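User: Show me a protein chain along with its predicted structure.
Assistant: Here is one chain, sequence first, then structure tokens.
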Amino acid sequence: MHLELVTLVVPEYDPAIAFFVDVLGFDLVSDEPALTDDGHPKRWVVVRPPGARTGLLLARADGADQSAAVGRQAAGRVGFFLRVDDFPAAHRRLTAAGVRFVTEPRTEPYGRVAVFLDLVGNRWDLLGPE
């Protein structure tokens, strides 16, 4: 058993794909046409870090309730954790790509960490070894 997907609600598919693939370096695993439960067109878009089993389902917000969740998936807390093998290199690369870090890198008992925002404002931990 493993956790396969976590839904991330986004305003539009293509900017989200560009952020996760072009900026963070995730793989685009799937981008297929689909239908909502009530028959409206949508896309089945899955991205995941290279070599990972767990991915993100990028789901375009449908309606006011879902739109209100965009950027607040975890109610303002860090809700996503991206572990890297080379923290300094990843931090430099993401900073150069325009990723907004809201904390400076620091050392915690679980390793190096810095909080960044995704394209819609969700908070992520960039994690790596000390």
